[in-house]
Structures are given as C-alpha cells and as structure tokens.
Design brief:
heterodimer, A: alpha/beta, TIM Barrel, eight-stranded parallel barrel, 13 helices, globular, B: about 270 residues, alpha/beta, Rossmann fold, eight-stranded mixed β-sheet, about 20% strand
Chain lengths: ~400, ~270
C-alpha cells in the first residue's frame, strides 16, 4: 500500500471571524499575508519532510475559502517537485470543469512531470458545488465540460507529432501542441475523486484511480464494489492500486495523544462544510430528482447523511467527536497498534485498497505536532501496512 | 402534466417541432397571444392564463429543457429558443400574434423580434431580462444564484408570504419539474448572466409596438432597468404594476392582463 500525506493547508487564523459561511463570500481582508506566508512555508516543510519519511505527497485546491489556502494545487507541487527527490506527487486535483483552459492544465502537469523526473500523478476533479461561484462556470453542463477537458488534456499530453485540431462543444483550439511532453509514458497516472457509485463506474471504464473522501464505513463499500464490477465488465485489469481511501490519522505514543491529534485534525471536517445554503446546490449541479428532494427540505438536507455511523445514524460533521469519527471510519487514531487495527479492519471491510490518503495535518494541528504525527506514523505504522494490497 | 392542473378550456398538448417534443399549453379563444414564461414559478401562472383566456387564444410553450419538454443536445443558447419559436409561429396556423415574455422569456422574445417580425403584431415585455446597460462592475440583474432564499423571495415578490410556494406540499413530479426549470434557466442564462452582450445594439429592429410592463417592487431587475429597456425600443411605452415584484402577472394577474388589453386596443401609441 502507498501512503500519501494530504492537508488542505487551512488559513485557520481567520476561522473565529467567519460566522455562517467559511467560503465564497468571505472578505480577503481577513487574510494577513504575513501570517499566510509563514503558514505556507510551514506546510511546505511538512510535505518536504515526507520525502525522508517515505510518505508520498498529495495536494488539492479550493477557492475563496479559509478552509484551504491551496487555491492552485500545482503551485506547491512545483516547489516540491524540486525540493523532494523520491516520493510521488499527487495533485487531486485540478478542477478541469471549472478551468477555462485545459491546455494550460496539460502544460502544468507536463512541466511538473519533467521537473520531478516522472513523479507526478494527475488528479482531475469535478469539484464541490460551492466551487461553481468562484469560477462562475455553468453548473448545468459541468459534467460535459469535465469530460471534454479530460479527453483534450490526455490527447494533448500524448500527441507528439505537431499540432492537432480541437473544436468541441466547450473548447476550441486549432493548433494544440503542448511542450514539454510528459516524462511518464504515455502520460502520468490519472486520478479522480468520487463520492458516488455512478462516478466510480465512469472512472472504472477509463481505468482511472479513484480517491474516496469522507465516505466512511457505510458509503465506501458500494463505491469500491461498483468500480470493481464495472472494471470487470469492460475488461479493465483490476488491482487494489485503482482504489484509494482518505482517512484523518492521529497517531501518538499513547492513545490519548493520538486522539488529541485526531481531534485537532478534525477541525477540517468541522469547518469545510460550513457554506451559505444558496451555494450548496447550484441549479443543474445535481440531477433534477436530487434537487427536487433538496427543495422539499428547503435545501437544508441536501448534504445531510453524508457521514454515517456504522449503525446508520447521521453524524453532523460540525460537532463530530473523535469517537464518532472512528466509528464512521473517517478517522484512524490512537497508538500505532490502534491505528493499524482500525485501518486493517476498514481495509477488510471494504475489500481492500491500494492507497491510503492520510490527512496527517488538518485544522489547528501545529507544526511540531504534525511532524511528530507523520514521523511516528512513518516509523511505527507504515512498515506494517506497506505490504498490504501487494505493496 | 405535472405542474399544471388542467382546467376546463385549458389544454396541455405535446407537439413535435423540428423533431423535438415540446409541451404546449393552449387556452381560450380570440386573437393569438404567445406567452414565453420565465425561469421559475411556472405553476403559479394559472390565474393569469385564465384571465388572458377570456380575450385571447393563449399559447404557452414549455421551453426545451423545462418541465417535461425535451432539450436536444444542440440547444445551448437563447438563440436556439428564439429560432425555435420563430419556426413555431411559421408552422402553426396562428396568423400574426401578440408576443409576450416574462423575465427570461422576455429575453427570448427580444431575440425573436430582432430577427424576424413577420408573424409578430406587437410585443409585451414583463420585467424582461436580456440586455446589459451598466458598466462591467455594475450588476444590472440581481445574482439570483448568490442570494439567500429569503432575500430572493423578497426581491421576486411584493408579498413573499403570500406568493412563496410551499415546496414541502408538492409532489415529487412537481418538484422535479421545478428543478428542471431551474437547471435549464442556468444552462441558457448562467454566463453571460441573463443577457446577450450583443443584443442591445440591434434593439432598433424591434419596430412593432411594444408595451414594457414592470412590477413596481421588482428587486431582480428594477423599474429603472425597465425604463432603460423601454427607451431602447423604437416604439414602446412603459407601465408599472403596483404592489408587484418580478412576476407581476402572478401577483396581479388582472392588472397585467388589463394592461395588455388596453395596449392591444390602442390604435396609436
């Protein structure tokens, strides 16, 4: 199993001033660039440390928010591509349905792949609904735009005989000719985060690796199963390396220390869903049937039920405790033995997976605690799971 | 039909036009009036249609992608809707019509009028969208997708407590129809937002008599926007409807229907 350290690198100093929405409408005067610079360097140091710890690196991006200060997922990767030497670099990823220029995305990933000498893994994301407003992209045809951009980027990265023509529904170029071409052939591995069985099947058809985030004990098995089934149906080779699971991980020398770290990392889960309701379900983002149900509950219930305990209770992420989150399968926490035990049980429950996306920093967990968390994980847990799923 | 309670004298039929299947509501008898609805609250138009049907043969298409109407993959802009309804006027035996459009439907009506007036006698715009008057940092039309739901209702209706639909009481079919209306409105109107940047320069082509009707309390596009629209048309007059927001035909069906009647009877503007 491969392990990846992921953090949304929050700008948490603004949190106490944000009120009912942590996204979209919050004024940037609440961001102090001097504090922000220190935070960026600190988070980059933590990622760079992963090169020594044998933990791969994952970034993502969000916009107009204090829950994630990474607004361009390839910028930290550009720094880390040179600063690190060994580990792999996963950007999960680029919201290609919300970016106006897919060719620019192909160029960014290709450059990163060459600079890192072939260590880039490319994520393409549809994006959460509240990413629509910052990009002002049309929510009613997001999916069509996403797949057209996906096809264009892959063609651009794998065409090496001069310009080609692309006059599609959403994107128009007459001289597509991306330099440099990527290091990895035919192109770096392609990932997509998914949250539903439908998306899992779309990814399976194309042989993409899926990352499931915040799906937990209840929602993960059907998603993985849908992927395996579709892959078999279309004759794609199925290995656990096609499946990735994200968990928040707090490990300590004592159970109490591990739980305390997990509790601070949970600051991510407790804040990331706080969004003014009008941005939660832009028209056309969800199907008419789903939106009809949202109307019934005045939109309030639209994202409810996303986090569930093992016995099917809805858990409110804003008030979730470590105990709730361990039960829900979102958090693995405690001593190295605890973490290994919880991880192993989850692994067996979902039928195995090849990548652990480890949120090793989140919320208010400070630098020293993050370093201790990652180091202890690397020393005591990683050796025990590295051979899972065939390595 | 999901959102329309069929009443005696009102027909919702399914027609084929250009190989696309469209729901078309017709009611009443008299000179033909083609009404192009806006992005939301279609189910609340019954009183208005009943009122119009006393004097008009009212024809109301559900736009492609709205309600139960199909949207062919190639239908992505308001231009497609404009050409579709110009085809509809040619192929159905209406003769010359009074063309009326509310909100988003007013935008479609304007796009039709700058193209071809052959089958259009006169134009009625009710709190119509479609034109950009202000500078790039001015917002002519409220961003309905960024407003909290209470404020959106306040800006849409003079009396939101009376007009706000009780979604919890609607059937799944009715709610799905509303969701399709909103999805299609976003598809056609998201960017540029509810207008065509090139349309204003062609408004001189709208040479038919036009009535611009505006809800006095419209907070989506204010009466000031309506006045500017009226002044941009070669042969238009302006009328406000008291105690009404963005959908005066829903809040004051008699007031709007009477205004249309007076306008149609007036020989000289």
């Amino acid at each position: 199993m491969k392990v990846w350290h992921f953090s949304e690198i929050a700008y948490h100093p603004a949190w106490p001033q944000l009120g009912h929405s942590y996204r979209v409408t919050i004024p940037s005067r609440l961001y102090d660039p001097k504090v922000g610079a220190d935070l960026y360097h600190r988070y980059l140091d933590e990622w760079a440390l992963c090169d020594e710890l044998g933990i791969n690196i994952m970034t993502n991006e969000h916009h107009a928010t204090a829950t994630c200060a990474d607004s361009v997922c390839t910028i930290p990767m550009a720094i880390l591509a040179r600063e690190t030497k060994k580990v792999r670099l996963l950007a999960l990823g680029m919201p290609i349905g919300n970016r106006n220029d897919p060719i620019r995305v192909a160029e960014e990933y290709s450059m990163l792949d060459v600079i890192s000498r072939g260590r880039i893994e490319m994520g393409f994301v549809k994006g959460v609904p509240f990413e629509i407003s910052p990009a002002n992209t049309n929510p009613a045809d997001l999916v069509g735009r996403f797949w057209e951009a996906h096809d264009l980027i892959l063609k651009a990265m794998t065409s090496h005989d001069g310009p080609f023509n692309w006059e599609g529904t959403h994107f128009h170029y007459r001289q597509v000719n991306v330099w440099p071409r990527p290091w990895q052939q035919p192109h770096p591995p392609v990932w997509m985060p998914v949250g539903s069985t439908g998306s899992a099947m779309e990814a399976a058809e194309r042989g993409m690796t899926i990352g499931v985030l915040n799906t937990g004990w209840v929602r993960t098995p059907p998603i993985f199963e849908a992927y395996r089934k579709k892959a078999a149906e279309v004759g794609r080779p199925m290995t656990p390396q096609r499946l990735a699971y994200m968990a928040l991980i707090g490990v300590g020398n004592t159970r109490e220390e591990g739980w305390r770290r997990a509790d601070q990392i949970l600051g991510y889960s407790r804040t990331s869903g706080i969004v003014a309701p009008q941005f939660m379900n832009p028209p056309g983002y969800a199907s008419p049937a789903q939106s009809a149900q949202a109307l019934k509950t005045s939109g309030a219930g639209f994202r409810a039920g996303r986090i569930q305990s093992r016995d099917g209770r809805n858990i409110d992420p804003r008030t979730m405790t470590v105990e709730d989150a361990i039960d829900a399968g979102l958090v693995f926490a405690g001593t190295p033995d605890d973490v290994f035990g919880q991880l192993r049980a989850f692994y067996d429950h979902v039928g195995g997976f090849g990548h652990l996306l480890m949120m090793g920093q989140g919320g208010l967990l400070d630098h020293d605690e993050t370093v201790a968390n990652l180091s202890l994980f690397s020393k005591e847990v990683l050796p025990r799971i590295v051979d899972l799923a065939g390595g | 039909m999901s959102t329309w309670t069929r009443k005696e004298g009102t027909e919702m039929e399914r027609i084929q036009i250009n190989e696309l299947s469209l729901d078309l509501l017709t009611a009443g008898d008299g000179p033909p009036l083609l009404f192009l609805h806006g992005g939301d609250y279609f189910a609340q138009h019954q009183e208005f249609f009943d009122r119009l049907a006393r004097h008009w043969r009212v024809v109301v298409p559900r736009h492609p992608g709205f309600g139960n109407s199909e949207r062919p993959e190639g239908f992505r802009t308001v231009h497609d809707l404009a050409y579709l309804y110009l085809d509809l006027l040619e192929r159905q035996d209406f003769g010359k019509v009074t063309l009326a459009g509310s909100s988003f439907g007013g935008w479609i009506a304007l796009e039709m009028c700058v193209r071809c007036l052959e089958r259009i006698d006169r134009l009625v715009l009710i709190d119509s969208l479609g034109i950009k008057f202000g500078g790039r940092e001015e917002r002519d039309i409220a961003d309905i997708y960024a407003l909290p739901s209470e404020e959106l209702l306040r800006r849409s209706f003079f009396d939101p407590t009376r007009m706000a639909p009780d979604y919890a009481r609607l059937s799944d079919d009715e709610l799905t129809s509303i969701a399709r209306d909103r999805q299609a409105t976003a598809l056609y109107g998201w960017r540029p937002y509810m207008h065509n940047p090139g349309l204003r320069q062609w408004l001189h082509r709208v040479r038919v008599p036009a009535l611009v009707v505006w809800g006095e309390n419209d907070g989506i596009a204010t009466p000031d926007y309506g006045q500017k629209l009226c002044r941009s048309l070669p042969n238009a007059r302006f009328e406000t409807i008291r105690q009404a927001g963005h959908y005066p035909q829903i809040e004051r069906p008699d007031g709007v229907a009477d205004a249309i009647g007076r306008f149609a009877r007036a020989e000289v503007l």
